[in-house]
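Let's practice the habit of predicting before peeking. Look at the sequence and jot down your guess about where helices and strands might fall. Then scroll down.
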Amino acid sequence: SAINSAGDGASLLINQITDSEVPKRAPPNFTLSATDTSIEVNWSAPNADDLNGILTGYIVTYYGYIIDTEVRNETLNTSSEDDQTFTLYGLQEYTEYFIS
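Done guessing? Here is the structure:
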């Protein structure tokens, strides 16, 4: 509000929400369980203090290599903050995979 010698004038209330920031940390309790052609990826939800906004999902990225040759590279997005497990199917046997 503006003021003058007669006092305070009318005021206007404006509401604004600030933007989110990226989460501070990766999801905790990240574990893997493998068969010959699949890997199950599990994690826990981040602590609320680490979110810096509203959680909308997760990204699982993996790369597969056989003797320094990339055989698979894919990024998968989950569609919900409730998703805390994801299984990678159709993988090649005897292949080293890097998952994040």
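How did you do? The chain is about 5% helix and 35% strand.
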